[in-house]
């Protein structure tokens, strides 16, 4: 097949995305596809008169590699490079239309909030992962929790505040976790142990969004469960060497111990798998996704924190590790995701 791997984009996580996009592209090429890695924001210049179909033949078998720079991208400087002020780069949709399928390797922002999916759906372009509806539901942690609670899936109790018109009531959980409603990668999240820390945590979350969640801190071990084709993969336990699973502990090599398959009883494994499959169904998530949980240390029940519609996809990311534990290697995983993606009419 001719495949566009869509990565980068206008997001603080663009470098992580370009790095995993390169690895996905190389993997798909090993499986015999012609692949173009396209930056969703910067796009690609194509000479006048060139048929984009031919690019898969001329460029589609080069090895990709991308090293994540040490500094985060300068978003203001990047914005100046926008093609006609759009978040979608020059020729991006033209290349996507020319492909048999678009592999979504974006992280954060428009890759996960459903915007890009909505554009591809409107263009009748086949793509991997969840539809725009699933992305919208999963990106919003307030909506996610309300839908899951209505289906009897345990979620942390708490409140959602619109800081433009509400302030924190005296009655609130403590210890608690303060988080922006629609970010990822633990951005803007603080764990709060006493009232003194609370205002600073709210200020931190507000940097990113006016809508914030203040929820009870669930004490216990943390797990994540990948879903592939509606079925749970073996769960992975996440043990940060210090602090909680924040941005640094997510992306700094060696900062977090990851145990897969997680050491759980057969009964616990069945329970977390059943809950994860249900979360994916309730939120209408697609071919693959990953659901985060904490096993409450006294209640012995799994609390769902959130769902990830475009989980990390380097060979060492959580979901590929879980797939490996189920006997599905990285190349087979990428190929399976392509194969299972729904056809367009
Ligand atoms: N209610 C909670 N209780 C305990 N820890 C939490 C809670 N909510 C979040 N965390 C911690 O913060 C991390 C990030 O929170 P999460 O809701 O998964 O957002 P993100 O989209 O940023 O990954 C989790 O992996 C967990 O370590
Ligand atoms: Mg998470």
List the helices and strands in order.
EHEHHHEHHHHEEEHEEEEHEHEEHH
Rg (C-alpha, Å): 20 Å
Average residue pLDDT? 94
N-to-C span: 18 Å
By CATH reckoning, the class of the largest domain would read Alpha Beta
Shape: globular
CATH topology of the largest domain: D-amino Acid Aminotransferase, Chain A, domain 1
Structural class by secondary-structure content: alpha+beta
Key structural traits:
binds adenosine-5'-diphosphate, 21% strand, Dna Ligase, domain 1, 13 helices, alpha+beta, 345 residues, 35% helix, Rossmann fold, 3 domains, globular, binds magnesium ion, D-amino Acid Aminotransferase, Chain A, domain 1, 4-stranded antiparallel β-sheet, 6-stranded antiparallel β-sheet
Task: Report on the architecture of this protein.
This protein has 345 residues and is of the alpha+beta class. It has three domains: 2-127, Rossmann fold (3-Layer(aba) Sandwich); 138-154 and 218-332, D-amino Acid Aminotransferase, Chain A, domain 1 (2-Layer Sandwich), CATH 3.30.470; 158-216, ATP-grasp fold, A domain (Dna Ligase, domain 1, 2-Layer Sandwich). It has 13 helices and 13 strands. The protein has helices at residues 14-30, 52-59, 75-79, 92-98, 109-112, 115-122, 132-139, 141-150, 195-206, 247-251, 266-282, 318-325, 330-340; strands spanning 2-7, 34-39, 101-104, 158-162, 176-180, 190-192, 211-216, 220-228, 231-232, 236-240, 256-259, 288-296, 302-308. Strands 8, 9, 10, 11, 12 and 13 form a six-stranded antiparallel beta sheet that branches. A four-stranded antiparallel beta sheet has the order 4-7-5-6, covered by helices on one side. α1 links the parallel β1 (2-7) and β2 (34-39). The longest helix has 17 residues, at 14-30. It is globular and about 65 Å long. The two termini are 18 Å apart. 43% of the residues are buried. The chain binds adenosine-5'-diphosphate and magnesium ion (MG). Adenosine-5'-diphosphate (ADP) is lined by residues 156, 177, 179, 183-186, 189, 215, 217-218, 222, 244-245, 292, 294, 305-306.
